[in-house]
Amino acid sequence: MLDFLMPANSGEFWTAIGAIGTFLAVVVALWPAFSSWKRRPKLYTGIRLHPPECGMYQQNEIRRVSFVNEPGVKGRTVASVSVGDAFWFRLYVTNTGQTAARDVEVTIGDVTRLDDGRFVPYSGFLLSNLIWTHEREVSRAQLLPGTDRNVDLGNMRRPDPNTQVQFRFQLSIDPVSAYNVVEPGTYEFDIQVGAANCDQAKTRFRLAFDGMWSADHEVMFKRHFSITRLDSQGQNAGTRTRKQTA
Question: CA-CA distances (angstroms) from residue 199 to 144, 203, 222?
């Protein structure tokens, strides 16, 4: 008889059957967790340096908010005034996974400035939340698979005569110390995006501008301003083309 056809009363035979059964039980127990891990949300952050996500728009400033609570009329009215032209810059966050990301937040931190050939920490810049475009919230309830949404990164206002352009990071707060306002130069910073049900993704960006102004976005972005996504080795990874979503 062949060696693998062991008698049913063989101790080795039943030991092997028991081991196989234990293995299969472990696989069955762990499969839901493995399947969930494989289908988990995966978050990617990038930028497209052209309108409508990045471009020049009228900068409005809210001066008055009035609340209406009358019979048949409820809501609020917002009075704002234009304070001049400004370039706005928005990142996009994409969910490339197979399940929705929940409670998604985006933060900026580890800001450095190029000084005498090397990047040094930019003093006073605290880890801060960015806000979702048009929503004015730091947390987004969900980001569905295959979709993306914008977050505000910052803006540059038209400068007064004989002054240079400044870059203002658009944070969830307006710091009293104005650590979010930077002068012309070259900077690097981390963008971290995380959710309640997936791992945090960190991406480093490099921003450079010379303080000059042009109302033409093509001239501005070719001659006076640049922002690039860096790879894990700190090299320019460019920008990634993405499919437009609703």
Answer: 16, 13, 35
Each residue's pLDDT tens digit, 49-94: 999 999 988 765 544 445 555 555 555 554 444 457 899 999 999 9
49: in domain: yes
Structure tokens at 86: 């400004």
Per-residue tokens: 13: 């035979």
Residue pair 180/169 in contact by the 8 Å Cβ criterion: yes
Question: How far apart, in whole angstroms, are the C-alpha atoms of residue 244 and residue 246?
Answer: 7
Tokens of 54: 């990045």
At 112-151, the pLDDT tens digits run 999 999 999 998 999 999 999 988 899 999 999 999 999 9
Domain that holds residue 150: 43-59+86-230
Question: Residues 90, 34: one domain?
Answer: no
Q: What CATH number does residue 146 fall under?
A: 2.60.40.10
Do 184 and 157 lie in a common domain? yes
**Omega into 52 within 30° of 0, i.e. cis?**
yes
Closest CA to 211 of 181, 171, 179, 172: 181
How many domains does the chain fold into?
2
Tell whether 2 is covered by a domain.
no
For residue 122, how far is the Cα from the chain centroid? 21
